[in-house]
Amino acid sequence: MIKSDVQLDAKGLACPMPIVKTKKAMNDLTEGQILEVQATDKGSTTDLKAWAKSVGHQYIGTREEDNVLLHYIRKSNDDNSYEKQFEQTITNEEVINRVANSGIILDVREEAEYAFGHIEGSKSIPMGELEDRLDELNHDEEIYVICRTGTRSDFAAQKLFKKGFTKVYNVLPGIGSWNGNLSKSMK
Amino acid sequence: MSNKVAIIASNGGLFDAYKVFNIATAAAATEKEVAIFFTFEGLNLIHKQAMQQLPMPKAREHFAEGFAKANVPSIPQLVEMAQDLGVKFIGCQMTMDVMGLTKDDFINGIEVGGAVTFLEFAKDASPTLTF
């Protein structure tokens, strides 16, 4: 199971219906939420990928279960103008060396994004759950916060800092520009 | 990047209808502004009666089964969906005059215009497609 906020049943529908239904379903999501599109149209994988790119949403991935394709799309906007505020940062390249000695990588993306590709050994706590799961983190340890583009991790790093975690760093530019291998975790 | 897709529908068969309306609905669902110019036999695709039973190409009648099996929406359904998504339909005035048809012979919500009406829309569209 991969967690999603809204599920759309587009099984048995031929092109262009899965796209049309997805477009309509997307209107009911708020930014950052994840839509699961269930489809049997074999062309839907490439179509949804292209659709998301064109419209500006984030295509996360597709898996197959009992001959049904499950596509995951995260609602986003194209606004990259957000200015990051948290001052302690570290680059994608540096973080791997640092974490080999001590500290953890904290991935604050949604569970579905994490499932389709994450840094081996990193810990997943989606941004929305962070507040309630602070007890899973250690104050004495370096925490390298990462997301896709550095925006959510910026918010998370600020929040952690306010809660007394001082050895916090925002990893930039984030998983979206990751050059190394990423692991999947799916059943 | 252009956000408009302009389509010319000039043929009146069932296959033509699917090509036109599939591309149109897919484009509209991808947040493109879409207009279709219906001219000559293409007018069949939005004619109240004709659109209900558009002909298959000769010797291709056996595809009917495939359409049903693949659960492809009917043309009236696709038309409704296209309009719902904001696709603009323009009927060609000149062809309508030649064929003795008026706006009332067509589904609701169409515009009637001449070639320039379409060209004005299509001038900054990409792509422009002809079926």
UniProtKB/TrEMBL annotation, chain A:
Entries under InterPro entries matching the protein: Rhodanese-like_dom (IPR001763), Rhodanese-like_dom_sf (IPR036873), TusA-like (IPR001455), TusA-like_sf (IPR036868)
PROSITE patterns, alphabetically?
RHODANESE_3, UPF0033
What the entry lists under CDD domains is as follows: RHOD, SirA_YedF_YeeD
Q: Could you tell me which Pfam families the record lists for this protein?
A: Rhodanese, TusA
Task: Outline the extent of the Rhodanese domain.
Answer: 99-184
Q: Which residues form the signal peptide?
A: none
Q: Gene3D superfamilies recorded for this chain?
A: Rhodanese-like domain, TusA-like domain
State the similarity comment.
Belongs to the sulfur carrier protein TusA family.
Give the protein's recorded name.
Answer: Rhodanese domain-containing protein
Automatic annotation (TrEMBL), chain B:
Family matches, as InterPro entries = DsrE2-like, DsrEFH-like
Q: Which domain of life is it from?
A: Bacteria
Supply the SUPFAM superfamilies for this chain: DsrEFH-like
In Pfam terms, one family for this protein is DrsE_2
Write down what this protein is called.
Answer: Sulfur reduction protein DsrE
- Source organism (scientific name): Lysinibacillus composti
| Lineage of source species | Bacteria, Bacillati, Bacillota, Bacilli, Bacillales
